[in-house]
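Throughout our pipeline, every protein is held as a single compact record rather than as scattered files. The record that follows is passed on verbatim for readers who wish to inspect the format:
___
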Amino acid sequence: MTRSESKYFNTALMMDEALIALLEEKDFEYISVKEICARAGVNRSTFYLHYETVADLLSEAMEYNIRQFREQFSVTAEQFIPTIDSAPLSDLMLVNSDNLHLYLTFIKEHKSLYNAVFKNPACMQVDRQFEQTTENVLVPIMSRFHIPQKEQKYRIGFYIHGCMAVIREWIKQNCDDAVEDIARILIACIYPADEQPNHTLGEQKHG
């Protein structure tokens, strides 16, 4: 990364963090470019070098948030993907209580951001965000479980959008229900009762 690229990245990061901080204080629709710039310590012209609208910044802030979440895992996607063909099937059931507890706790800690994004669905871009995960992780895992190729896209669509629907409803309720309850509901929705994962991954979490 060159010096100019580093400066550009750092400026964008300051604006991401400024927006996330402001979302803790007020609803997204009431946040102005002026407030973001004041909080980030940049001028308006700098903002418009990076973004056309505040919605563009919200989309980027969401991507920044997802990167923060992935950094919590001890095993990266790059390390996990080559193991899919040989890993025990139990290790490929990624939707389990351990991983869900981590994910849902993270969402609850950043619920103001997620609430803003769910109210502006174009910023969520779920399909684009999960495109690489689908191709490199979910499809190979489904193949290990002998799920027919023609069914995989439908099941993946259900998993991703179904989980997002549960989480969206939880956020609408201000995340009042316990993380453990939402994790249990998600597992019950995804797995038949006799296939629900009971194991924990311990340190073998995957990002």
Observations:
- Residues 149-172 form the longest helix (24 residues).
- The radius of gyration is 19 Å.
- Confidence is low (pLDDT under 50) at residues 199-207.
- Residues 8 and 49 are 10 Å apart (CA to CA).
